[in-house]
Amino acid sequence: MAENKKTPKYSFCPLCGTRLVKRKDFDQTRRHLCPGCGWVYYPHPFLSATVLICKGDKVLLVKRNQTPKKGLWQLPGGFVEFGEMPQETAVREVKEETGLKIKIEKLAHLEMIDDDPRGIILGFVYQAKIKKGKLGKDKEISAVDFFSLEKLPKIAFKIHHRLLAKKGGKIDG
Ligand SMILES: [Zn+2]
């Protein structure tokens, strides 16, 4: 990804602290480079993993307890940690947020998300089923529940909105 108005701006090299200069890279793209150590800034999206877990005609949602979009609902999930595979993130986040152990069935969807104030995110969406565990919640979350697709609460993110709408729900969040 080349730099655009949504990519974070760096003024100084994160490795050696030298002020960055803007030059043409070897591929002719203008990039910020460090004249001190040679570091090149290649902007990249964050990665997230989100999980669709259905029980009958209901879908599992969690209510956000932190900014952004505090108080709105979303599919369980979160950012991929460095060194983690997105499917591992999916399993970890669902366990942390809801107490449930899941089995990933398939990668259901992949999308570049541009409506999150934290930055551009490449979102992996998995379909999974519950292996075991009792529905609970942690402090990242203020509530967790299954919802009928016809009677959904207010959804935090456009991508979740669309995924749920595609599954047949009518959403007005
Ligand atoms: Zn440097």
Detailed description of the structure:
By secondary structure, the chain is mainly beta. The chain has 2 domains: 8-43, Ubiquitin Ligase Nedd4, Chain: W (Single Sheet), CATH 2.20.70; 46-166, Nucleoside Triphosphate Pyrophosphohydrolase, CATH 3.90.79. It has 2 helices and 9 strands. It has helices spanning 86-98, 158-166, and strands spanning 21-24, 30-33, 46-55, 58-64, 73-74, 77-79, 101-113, 121-132, 141-148. Strands 3, 4, 5, 6, 7, 8 and 9 form a 7-stranded mixed β-sheet that branches. Residues 169-173 have low confidence and may be disordered. Bound molecules: zinc ion (ZN).
Write a concise synopsis of the structure shown.
With 173 residues, this protein is mainly β. It has two domains: 36 residues, Ubiquitin Ligase Nedd4, Chain: W (Single Sheet), CATH 2.20.70; 121 residues, Nucleoside Triphosphate Pyrophosphohydrolase (Alpha-Beta Complex), CATH 3.90.79. Helix content is 13%, strand content 36%.
Topology diagram in text:
Layout: E1 21-24, E2 30-33, E3 46-55, E4 58-64, E5 73-74, E6 77-79, H1 86-98, E7 101-113, E8 121-132, E9 141-148, H2 158-166
Parallel strand pairs: 3-8
Antiparallel strand pairs: 1-2, 3-4, 3-6, 4-5, 4-9, 7-8
The site of zinc ion has 8 residues, from loops.
Summed up, the domain count is 2
- Ligands, deduplicated: zinc ion
Helical/strand content category: mainly beta
Distance between the termini: 32 Å
Radius of gyration: 19 Å
Please report the first level of CATH classification, the CATH class of the largest domain.
Answer: Alpha Beta
CATH topology of the largest domain: Nucleoside Triphosphate Pyrophosphohydrolase
Helix/strand order, N-terminal first: EEEEEEHEEEH
- Give me the number of helical elements: 2
Low-confidence stretches: 169-173
